[in-house]
Every structure is written in structure tokens, then in C-alpha cells.
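Bumping with the actual sequence this time:
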Amino acid sequence: MLVWVIYDIIKTKTRTKVAKACLSAGIYRVQKSVFLGELNLNQIDQLSLKIERLIDLEKDSVYIFPLCRDDFKKVKLLGQAFDKKMVTDEIRTKFF
């Protein structure tokens, strides 16, 4: 399923670690503190646990929103938007 990960983290070092955790999970950065990609439920749980260990639960916030493909097709992209096809694996599957 598609997953949005959105965070507001105070310390730069922690933000960097969370970003690396998201990238290593295989999701794409669409903005500085926003990631999107395809993860299964087990991968979502693993990423959640990893991030929970990194952040300050009293000061930082991280949102992980699952999104079905039908709803993703309804997403409105305005301005300099990311490549929806890259995030949904439509392009990656062409190379493999």
C-alpha cells in the first residue's frame, strides 16, 4: 500500500536519521520532510518502530498515513510536484 510519512523534528541530526530510515525502507522523498512510497504492513510497522526509537516523543511528531491506490489517483498536485509515476513504481517496473 502507498504510505505518506510526514514529520516535524526539532534536531537536525534526528531529522537526518529519520530521512535515512525512510530512504532505506524504500520510500521516496517528495519534500524535505515528506516521503511517499509503497510499503506492506510489516514494513510500515518496522519503519514505525525504527522512527519511534529515533525521535523525541515529547517534542517531535511523525505521521504515517496509509493511502489506497484509488485515493492516490485523486491526489491534487500543484506547483512543483513530484513524479507520481515514480512513487507508484510505474516507472521502476519498466527498468526491471
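The C-alpha cells above came from a reply further down the thread. Helices lie at 12-25, 41-54, 69-72, 84-87, 92-95.
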